[in-house]
Design a protein that fits this description.
It comes from Pristionchus entomophagus. The protein is 61% helix and 0% strand. It is mainly α.
Length: 212
């Protein structure tokens, strides 16, 4: 029996985004200044759905080529399970943190669909892909201490997920030297985010020390 479906969300899926590009919604951005209860759950689930649509054709760089959406889902789960983070705005930003950097999603679209607070966090953790990779990595270290506490939470969880992935399976083409360099660079980024969440920082210290 075919599954019944309701009307599609206002934002396009990835295929429509690829052909049209740019923001999709013309409505006013929502306000999530006091996100609690059902409104908070709706925000998180909407962000998860949005991220799944935008990342749906992408794969991770591991040997298994796992679906990319596993990453933002994992980052959000790290925030709740280890960091004990319950702020829906932070969790929504965790799901969305790579959409602007790695898909055709614009930061204006994030604000239109999810509000200014989510936009601010996503913007803070988004690298400028027009810059050389070495420059982007240096800027992450330089800017880490100056990020908002909410952005630092997402950054810490993002780093922990990536380091766990790297410890479990070396990406194709990486040698031991490159792996060690990634751990060293991550340690420098994490250092700039210290004082944000003891549990996340302890988990990061543990995995970094284990691999350096």
């Amino acid at each position: 029996m075919a599954e019944k479906t309701g009307p599609p969300p206002s934002y396009p899926d990835l295929s429509a985004e690829q052909t049209q590009g740019g923001p999709s919604s013309t409505t006013s951005p929502p306000s999530y200044n006091d996100v609690t209860g059902v409104a908070g759950i709706n925000l998180i689930v909407k962000a998860a759905d949005f991220a799944a649509r935008r990342h749906r054709t992408q794969k991770r760089k591991d040997h298994a080529q796992t679906p990319y959406i596993n990453h933002p889902v994992g980052v959000a789960y790290i925030l709740t399970s280890i960091g004990r983070v319950t702020d829906p705005v932070v969790l929504a930003a965790a799901y969305l943190h790579d959409t602007v950097e790695d898909t055709k999603t614009t930061i204006e679209e994030i604000e239109m669909e999810f509000g200014k607070e989510v936009r601010k966090i996503v913007e803070e953790v988004t690298d400028d892909k027009s810059l050389p990779k070495a420059t982007r990595k240096a800027l992450q270290v330089e800017k880490a201490p100056h990020k908002s506490p909410q952005a630092k939470l997402v950054k810490l969880a993002d780093k922990l997920y990536n380091l766990r992935d790297l410890e479990r399976s070396t990406p194709h083409g990486w040698d031991k030297k490159r792996v060690k360099e990634y751990f060293k660079w991550s340690r420098d980024v994490v250092a700039g985010c210290k004082g944000t969440n003891d549990a996340l920082e302890a988990a990061l210290d543990d995995i970094i020390n284990r691999n350096l």
